[in-house]
């Protein structure tokens, strides 16, 4: 029998879905709300390129890379001149490569690079595409088309549109070169330049975490979230940094609940992933029943999300 907390959490999710459903939101809104089951249902009988792209993004959010690739490739086949479609397909190729054998990953990495470069070629002002391409150049070996000089060139191009993001790219390059003082300086320059500095404060926290500076993460995250310009999704990212650092799980849980209650849900931090992350946090806090509730809430929104399914199975 489900616990009371489990039943209450599922009921809240279902009531919210029913209430919002009365307005019949578009599939793109459903993705932003994290209601992936409904988004896929709404898109399943459509045959246009944008619907294929949204379907790809729905599966991408659930980490179902093969399905994301299938629908992303269909979107490109229908409309090959849309920069954003190539960007999302590149992301799917990249994530698929990360889960593949070395031999398969090599071919997928080249496809990732080609799609990122095509996205930039089609829309030189696409800062997201340039930023993602710079990450590829920074991390990939030369034999796969990577190169730090190529990443620096992307920073130059991005600086025409977004000075803060250009500094962030240079920070990643410096970190790759193990010039950590320079990397930190570039992140702090991004904070100074940014319209929304919270995002770059949290990038700095991530940099500290990757260096094993967990005490600094614990200091920086509340500093970031004290900024007046914070957005709802910053609560998700802040919670994720605390969770990955193994620090202040109660505060991470508080941030996630604020995000879920905010009314400002976004596709990059879908509600089903927020519920899953909250379940992970509760597990670390020894609250198994609450974790079970959150995993079930996650699956109520995205039944194909295997991480939540496996986590739930582990607790049952």
Show the helix and strand layout:
Blueprint: H1 4-21, H2 27-33, H3 36-43, H4 49-61, H5 65-78, H6 83-98, H7 102-122, H8 127-139, H9 148-158, H10 163-176, H11 180-193, H12 197-210, H13 214-225, H14 232-245, H15 249-261, H16 271-284, H17 288-301, H18 306-315
Helix pairs in contact: 1-17, 2-3, 3-4, 4-5, 4-6, 5-6, 6-7, 7-8, 8-9, 8-10, 9-10, 10-11, 11-12, 12-13, 12-14, 13-14, 14-15, 14-16, 15-16, 16-17, 17-18
Could you characterize the architecture of this molecule?
The longest helix is centred in the middle third of the chain and has 21 residues. This protein has 18 helices and no strands. α3 packs antiparallel against α4, α9 runs antiparallel to α10 and α13 runs antiparallel to α14. It is mostly helical. The N terminus is likely disordered.
Give a quick account of the main beta sheet: strands, pairing sense, barrel closure.
none
Gyration radius over CA: 20 Å
Global morphology: globular
Low-confidence stretches: 1-23
By helix and strand content, what is the structural category? mainly alpha
Strand-residue proportion:
under 5%
Look at the structure and give the mean pLDDT.
Answer: 92
Helix content: over 70%
Order of helices and strands: HHHHHHHHHHHHHHHHHH
How large is the count of helical segments?
18
How many distinct beta strands? 0
How far apart the termini lie comes to 11 Å
């Amino acid at each position: 029998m489900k616990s009371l907390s489990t039943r209450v959490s599922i009921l809240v999710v279902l009531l919210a879905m029913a209430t919002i459903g009365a307005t019949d939101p578009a599939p793109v809104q459903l993705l932003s709300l994290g209601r992936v089951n409904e988004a896929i249902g709404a898109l399943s009988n459509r045959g246009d390129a944008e619907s294929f792209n949204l379907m790809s993004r729905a599966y991408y959010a659930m980490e179902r890379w093969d399905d994301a690739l299938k629908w992303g490739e269909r979107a490109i086949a229908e409309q090959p001149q849309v920069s954003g479609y190539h960007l999302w397909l590149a992301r799917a190729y990249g994530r698929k490569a990360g889960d593949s054998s070395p031999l398969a990953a090599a071919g997928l990495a080249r496809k990732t690079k080609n799609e990122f470069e095509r996205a930039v070629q089609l829309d030189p002002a696409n800062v997201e595409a340039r930023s993602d391409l710079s990450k590829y150049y920074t991390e990939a070996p030369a034999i796969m088309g990577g190169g730090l000089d190529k990443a620096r060139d992307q920073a130059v191009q991005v600086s025409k549109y977004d000075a803060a993001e250009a500094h962030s790219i240079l920070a990643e390059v410096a970190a790759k070169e193990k010039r950590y003082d320079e990397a930190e300086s570039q992140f702090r320059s991004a904070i100074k330049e940014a319209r929304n500095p919270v995002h770059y404060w949290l990038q700095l926290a991530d940099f500290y975490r990757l260096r094993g500076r967990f005490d600094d993460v614990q200091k920086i995250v509340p500093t970031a979230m004290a900024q007046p310009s914070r957005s709802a999704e910053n609560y998700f990212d802040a919670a994720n940094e605390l969770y990955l650092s193994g620090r202040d799980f109660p505060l991470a849980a508080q941030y996630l609940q604020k995000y879920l209650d905010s009314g400002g849900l976004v596709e990059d931090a879908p509600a089903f992933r927020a519920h899953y992350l909250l379940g992970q946090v509760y597990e670390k806090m020894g609250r198994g029943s609450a974790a079970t509730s959150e995993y079930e809430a996650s699956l109520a929104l995205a039944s194909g999300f295997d991480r939540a399914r496996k986590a739930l199975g582990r607790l049952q």
